[in-house]
Amino acid sequence: MPVPYDSTTSARTGARYGPEAIIQASASLEDYDWELDLDVAEVGIHTAPILEPHTGDPRLMTQRIQQAVSLFLSQGKLVGILGGEHSVCIGSVQAHLDYYPNLSVLYLDAHADLRQEFLGTRWSHACGARRIHEQCPLVLAGLRSLCLEERDYIRGQAIPAFFWPPQGTESDYIQQVTQRLGPEVYISLDLDVLDPSLMPAVGTPEPGGMNWRQLMALLSAVAQAKRIVGFDVNELSPHEGPAACSYTAAKLVYKLIGYAAQAGSLPKSPSAESI
Question: N or C: at which end does the chain have fewer Cβ atoms within 10 angstroms?
Answer without folding.
Answer: C
